[in-house]
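2024-03-11 09:14:02 INFO worker-7 job=invfold-0412 stage=load source=structure_tokens
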């Protein structure tokens, strides 16, 4: 599975973006999919994830209702809707995937496939 993240850009605080992660090589309809981010000088951290069924979503505490993860399996694409963006949300955002049952994992070690990242810059 190859993952291609896109949709990053520069916005002002309070703005919105929609990140996309398009998969190729295999249908991801049974895959757990997640978003992680890495700010300059910091470790990569979990943002959000969605189960293969789409019924279960999990979020990092700092999201606090601002972000929404979703998927369109017909398009083989994962999304992350970013709202009420803050300067501290500035980071490279990565999508990741793994096949599995149960709830989507929060730890990056559990994911097998990774996209190349897309940069989100939020100015104050």
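2024-03-11 09:14:09 INFO worker-7 stage=emit residues=124
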């Amino acid at each position: 599975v190859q993952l291609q993240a896109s949709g990053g850009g520069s916005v002002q605080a309070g703005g919105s973006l929609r990140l996309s992660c398009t998969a190729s090589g295999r249908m991801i309809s049974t895959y757990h999919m997640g978003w992680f981010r890495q700010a300059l000088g910091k470790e990569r951290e979990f943002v959000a994830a969605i189960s293969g069924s789409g019924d279960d979503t999990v979020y990092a505490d700092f999201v606090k209702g601002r972000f929404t993860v979703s998927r369109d399996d017909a398009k083989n694409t994962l999304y992350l809707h970013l709202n009420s963006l803050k300067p501290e949300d500035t980071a490279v955002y990565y999508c990741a995937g793994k096949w599995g049952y149960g709830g989507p994992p929060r730890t990056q070690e559990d994911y097998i496939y990774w996209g190349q990242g897309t940069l989100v810059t939020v100015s104050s």
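2024-03-11 09:14:09 INFO worker-7 stage=report msg="The chain has a mean pLDDT of 95."
2024-03-11 09:14:10 INFO worker-7 job finished
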